[in-house]
Design goal:
326 residues; five-stranded antiparallel sheet; 12 helices
């Protein structure tokens, strides 16, 4: 289901360098606008790409759906700025490619601060629709480290309980830690299925869609670990009695913002989630001021947890409706 000419499988070194120049060429702020995020999820969303008019075009859809709906995201620049005429031409080219492939043209996942560019390219021709489930939560790094302030006192109490109760080590992860990271991921699946004794048996009892989601995330984490020592990646592992009990993996998004793509922790340790988030932020460079902890996907418990941490800002994301198509 490739709309554009290339996919993310078997990328050459030249391909990776070219793609990276676009993913790092502008402060997109959205967690999905990185090479790593697209590469590790390539088999879940059937992602494909092409460079046209000096802009990187990207589309994807769920690989699971029998009748998938493809989405076109914001064209990316490698120069730090946009030529509005070329942006318009690139979007119209993408629309033609969608239609030629038999797909309805759908443009989405556009960060709010980039909407004026599309409005300038299509004056009076578009309207924007926000999807609350896709909004990303952004926090001050220092506040995540200390959990300071009255509103976060319960979170801080949990973190302090962990510190008083357990002796732990926090350190950056290495490629050689891949096995223990993946073992923890599988153990956390076991926790959700306590009636079974074996991981393989457990996953066989799951809802098929849940199992596919689990396998996709497991694969994405494993792929991320192959690049964990890259200068752009950030990580932390929390060890109690020399055993990994939590980890977080992320990368740089902009000059002053990082993103935490994956965060896992054992549930039996009170305060561990607060600890892993805090320690991850401690390992971030001094020039990183903000941490993007991604969207809540409309999951009620996840939304409550993210809102309770009092985000500083949101990266709001929108879809684009072309009025002539309404």
């Amino acid at each position: 289901m490739e709309i554009f000419k290339n996919n993310f499988n078997d990328l050459s070194d030249d391909d990776k360098a070219l793609l990276d120049s676009y993913f790092t060429g502008y402060p997109y702020e959205g967690a999905g606008y990185t090479l790593l995020a697209n590469y590790v999820w390539r088999n879940e969303y059937c992602l494909n790409w092409e460079v046209y008019e000096g802009l990187l075009l990207l589309s994807g859809s769920s690989c699971r759906d029998a009748n998938p709906k493809a989405v076109f995201s914001m064209p990316m620049t490698s120069t730090g700025e946009y030529d509005i005429d070329k942006l318009r031409d690139a979007i119209l080219y993408a629309q033609n490619r969608f239609e030629a492939a038999g797909f309805e043209f759908r443009m989405g996942l556009i960060p709010e601060h980039m909407l004026p560019l599309i409005e300038e390219a299509f004056p009076g021709e578009v309207e924007f629709i926000e999807n609350r489930d896709e909004d990303e939560y952004v926090y001050l790094k220092e506040k995540m480290i200390t959990l300071s302030g009255r509103a976060l006192h319960k979170k801080r109490n949990h973190m302090n309980f962990f510190k008083k109760t357990y002796e732990y080590e926090a350190r950056k992860l290495r490629v050689e830690d891949t096995d223990i990271v993946m073992n923890l991921v599988r153990d956390l699946v076991d926790e959700k299925n306590p009636d079974e004794n074996d991981f393989e048996e457990k996953v066989e009892t799951m809802d098929p869609d849940d199992l596919k989601t689990l396998k996709a995330e497991e694969y994405a984490i494993s792929e991320s670990m192959t690049s964990v020592e890259s200068p752009r990646m950030f990580s932390v592992g929390i060890f109690v009695d020399e055993k990994l009990v939590a980890f977080s993996l992320g990368e740089r998004l902009t000059d002053d913002m990082a993103v935490a793509h994956f965060e896992k922790a054992r549930s039996e340790y009170r305060g561990l989630y607060q600890i892993v988030a805090s320690e991850f932020c401690k390992f971030l460079p001094s020039d990183v001021k903000y941490i993007n902890r991604e969207e809540d996907m409309g999951i009620e418990n996840l939304r409550h947890a993210k809102e309770s941490l009092r985000p500083e800002i949101f990266v709001r994301k929108f879809s684009v409706k072309f009025k002539q198509n309404s």
